[in-house]
Amino acid sequence: MPHDKNICAVTQRPTSPARRGFLKAGGALVVTFCLPAVGASTARTQIFDKVPPDQLDSWIAVAQDGSVTAFTGRIDMGTGVETVFVQAVAEELDVPVGAVTFVLGDTARTPDQGKSTASNNIARNLPPMRQAAAEARLALVELAAQHFDVPVQRLSVRDGIVSVDGDARKISYGELIGGKHFNVTLSVKGTGNQTQIKGRAQVKDPKSFRVLGKPIQRVDIPAKVRGEHRFVHDVVVDGMLHGTVVLPPGRGMKLVSVDGFPQPVPGVVKVVTRGDFVGIVAETEQAAVRARNALRVTWAHTGKPCEFDDVYETVRNTPLLEQQVEGKVGDTQKAFASADKVLESTYLLPVNSHGMMGPSCAVADFRDGSLTLWSGTQWPEGTREDVAKMMGLRVDNVHVVWVQGSGSYGRLGVDDAAGDAALLSQAVGRPVRVQWQRADENQWSPLCPAAVIRVKAGLDRQGRIVAWEFENRTPGHSTAERGNILAWRALGSNPGHNRLSGGADNPSYEIPNLNVVTHYTHEVVRAIYMRSVAGIQNAFAIECMMDELAAQAGADPVAFRLTHTTNQRSRKVIETVARKAGWNASQKPVVNGDVIEARGIASMCAGDGKLANHGAWGNLATIVDVQVNRKTGAIRVKRVFVAFDAGRIANPDGLRAQAEGGTLMGISRALKEQVLFRGGSVASADWLTYPVLQFSDVPETLDVTLIDNDHPPLGAGEVPNVTPACAIGNALFAATGVRIRELPLTPDKVKAALASA
Amino acid sequence: MASGITITVNGKQREVRADAETPLVYVLRNELGLHGTKFGCGVAQCGVCSVLLDGQEIRSCIMPVAIAAGHEITTLEGVADSWAHRKPAAKAKAQDAQQAPALHPVQQAWIDLQVPQCGYCQSGMMIQAISLLNTNPQPTRSDIVAAMQGHICRCGTHMRIIAAIERAAAQMSKEA
Questions:
Q1: What's the total number of domains in chain B?
Q2: A234-303+360-435 sits in which CATH class?
Q3: ipTM for this model
Q4: In what order do the strands lie in the sheet with A398-402?
Q5: Taking the complete model, does pTM exceed 0.90, yes or no?
Q6: Are residues B85 and B62 both part of a single domain?
Q7: Which residue among B43, B119, B156 sits closest to A663, beta carbon to beta carbon?
Q8: On chain B, which terminus has fewer CB atoms closer than 10 Å, C or N?
Q9: At the top level of CATH, which class does the domain A4-229 belong to?
Q10: Whole-angstrom Cα distance, residue A230 to residue A219?
């Protein structure tokens, strides 16, 4: 049972065994990890050292029964990568899939491997996990060679049993090393999410894979289906209290006073005020919620009230922070001067919300100067460092235990609830679980910022694109990631962000004169990357413009795209999806009363993954068949075809699930999603005011073609989410001749556009 | 300190400490340790907190615990047993094989089609699916869409949910 150890680790506060011995032991001591809670008599500040990546024992442990525990700083936010990690270890170690259990994202038990973002869990983590398992296999085979006194060449391994070729002798991994250390030192290259390791072992040739590349069932699904899977929301710690936060009604407000409860709320333990941070700790969750709703708090604007009702005007008027040239080829000015036709369009992309189904939640246990946090964070070490700094603790006094949160799509690149829980636990001296309410999540989680994208493109007489100018004006997409935990901002002591992301992407087409620029503005609202970072925004502009150019050139949209790329992988996804959909260059919209049916295509190709874009990797093309109702303006996506090349496939069913899920979220973002503001407050505070895809919006068919090859794995979680919006926009144009350049493509916008056409 | 309220959950009578107005979801999760039921929105908009009340889906985030008293509450943790109870043959089969209680056909279909991604909404999805099949054993696709309409999934597992409900319906009609 892969998750038993998590449960064990969360039900009792882990103590800190003799540091060096524990760390060197790595996983071997995992089974004895549940130690008695620290009693008051032994109270002392705990030190949680980092796990050394240069020790094989930090990555792999084999127990006496032959079961394997593997350790990674990476996490699985619900995409199924844990299963792929299991496959990688089972493959290289030659053990059954069922023998492998993973410990993910525990800063005291797993190597620091940075953050699980940008769809790179497979691309970045398969190499070290495969290498670690291969090193362990080599060490075990050498032990067996000593044991039998035969050369290693005479040994073979199957299902964790080492056999001597040509006779009946065999010995299991458990018998060879069970519970003991490998004591193998590896060389380490890179840090954080770039960590790679190397020893003496050779990983397998993918041609001989028996486990990787197969549709192995997900290891987490049985527990999820039985209601036994532990989410961070389900963590229970002995003596735990329930906390909540009271957040201001709008942006840019300061706390004036906390004025108490109109009448006593039973079960309230403490109201905690620090700076602009207001939290409540209560005996029960319902008492915390009642207290939150009852507490009288006075807030006031510090200056001019914030105002972002028009998010695009806000982006246009917010001062620039930095400009970045993302791509420059040839001389666009000259090319535009000699172009036959020049098109220029501006595309508007709204603020989106990740909308985790489960609002933010974390548990903190602050005791004797040290802190244990149970968090769904996508970046355990980042959360550890930030919460430590916020609390004025040394980083090694903080231990972050990752427990799966609700699907986060980037939102848990920063875990705000962890900051709240830490402050509240410190204030009451007991473990505190913080659960945000839905309105907290919708109004105060970091958001995917709005973008204003201007594209200018020139065609020559032959209908080829000769010039491309692309400017994406946007606030950075990761301003919340570090130095900006919400509670830390409320304390007023946070350093602020240190990294910009979510800028302009280069088109995946060959254009002789090109100029791609990002104009990063200052932060508008706290932001965190959302499934593709700015992939969906950039692709909407790029792929709608490609369609506009095709129309200008009198070319078929599929043929036009193929004319502009010689990359074999890009061509293959476009050709494949066109063939699967039965794309016909002379197809005409089908009119049936008020309903017009037509199709559109979009593609997003990273080639070999070297394209300088900001998020989504992989090569993917999408064709959608939509029905547009002229009377109501409603767009219904009837059928979707996807062709997807994400490099060598680690798990076809897992990849297919990402293609399906990403496509549906892409349709949701295309048709429905936008965060609305009223006077500096998020008006989209619930699921009625932030509508997302419902079952009635689901297409009748979703046909996914996976293209396997020998190229290294590329990201899979984000790309499928990028293409639906532009494909739908293009299908709307094919159906009606109307081009809408602003998401979402709501009935009101469609009706208005049709009326003015 | 008991509030004097007793509720029946997964076939067992449970005495409750929470006061009458406490939403059922908090009682299930925090008093009874049944974490399969999730909190999502608190206003019955998303469906992650769904449980069965006398076999029909309700939203436990807006149901005061006192109102649930006197009814049979079934959470995801209890659906396998309640199916085995309804289908003694299934129970006997499971016991013969000395397995854990056989899953409800809806749960089995969820595994067969590898439905969940993050899984946070899936308890409510399966509960709603069971509620639908309890009253409409042979739903059409549009019946399924209508029944599931009030449940949100952010990972985009909808296609597999629809297919899994169709699969479970077929399986249940075979067993019936």
A1: 2
A2: alpha beta
A3: 0.96
A4: A268-274, A277-282, A241-245, A432-435, A361-367, A370-375, A398-402
A5: yes
A6: no
A7: B156
A8: N
A9: alpha beta
A10: 13
